[in-house]
UniProtKB/TrEMBL annotation:
It comes from Prolixibacter denitrificans. The keyword Iron applies. One of its GO terms (molecular function) is metal ion binding. Belongs to the pirin family. This is Pirin. Residues 207-309 form the Pirin C-terminal domain. Residues 62-140 form the Pirin N-terminal domain. Binds 1 Fe cation per subunit. Fe cation binds at residues 74, 76, 118, 120. Keywords: Iron, Metal-binding.
Amino acid sequence: MSEIVSHIKPLGFQWEALDPFLFCVHHEDFFPKGNANLGPDKKELAGRNIGQDFHVKDGWRMYHGQTVPGFPPHPHRGFETVTVVRKGWVDHSDSMGAAGRYGNGDVQWMTAGKGLQHSEMFPLVNQDTDNPMELFQIWLNLPRTSKMVEPHYKMFWNENIPRYETTDAQNRKTKIELIAGQIDTLAAPVPPPDSWAAKDENEVAIWVIHMEPNAAFELPAASPGVNRRLYFYKGDQLQLNDTNLPAYHSADLQADQQINMMAGEEACSALILQGRPMREPVVQYGPFVMNSKQEIDEAFSEYRQTQFGGWPWPQDEVTHGADAKRFAIYSDGTKEER
C-alpha cells in the first residue's frame, strides 16, 4: 500500500468519512410488494423489532417505521444531509410544511441549520411486484458560522444532474454523476448557499463513478490539503494505481495526486467524498452536530421547548399516496412537479 492510496477498510452499514463530511449510510433493501398503505403486508412484519428494526431479515429492514419502512419525525441541527437515491422512493415531510417525493436517481440536499424535524419514509408503491431500494445518505458538516442558519432544502432531479463520460483506449466507458464539484468544464448543480460546498475554494466533491468491466480512468488531482475518500460499493475488484481494493472497501486517496483506476472483471461503482477540511471541533450527540457540549445541551433544551416548530402533519409516517409522481413543495409554498 502506498501513501497515495492508504487506510483501506471494509465497509459496514455506516461508513466513516473525513472532514468536512461526518459519515455516509448505505441503505440497500429488497422490499416486498406493498399493500394499500404503502407498507409490507402484516404477515411480512412477523418476528421483527418494529420501531427499531435495523437487522436485515428477508433482505430488508423497517428501520423506525411501524407500518411503512423509514424514519418518522426526528430533529436535526448543525449539519446537512445529502440523500442520493439510486433505486426506490423517499417521501419527505418536515416541520416547516415542506414535502416531496423523489427517487430513482434524484438527490435531496437539506440544510438543517438551526433546527427542524423531518421524516423520510420509503413507500412501497408497487403492489404487484417487489420494491427494491438503494440510497446513500451523506452527512456534511456546517462550519461554525453557518450552524444556526435557516433550514431549507434543494432538489437535484435525476435528469438535471450532469454526467461526465469518457472512454479508455479500449473504448470501455466510465460515467460519473456530479452531485457536487467539477470535472473539466462540467460542474454539478449549485449547492445550498450556506453549505461548505458553496465556496469553490473548498473543493467539495460528491461523485458517483460507474466503470464498465476492465475500464480504465484517470481520476484528476485536486489541491494539496484536500481530503478525499473513495467507497467501492459494487463490483469484484478495483485497482487504484498499484493497489488492489477489494469489494465493499474504502480507501483514502492523496487528493493532489492523479489516480489511475481500473475496474475488475465486473462493472464497478464507487462513491467519492472530497473536500477541504473545516478543522473545527465536532461534538455530535444523536441528531445534533455542534462545536461544543454546551451547544449540544442548548440544542436539546430548545428542542424540548419548541419541537423546532412542531409537527404540522396529521400523522408521523407521512406518505404521499400510491399515485403521486415526483414533486417538491418548499417552505415558501413553491411547488415543483416532474
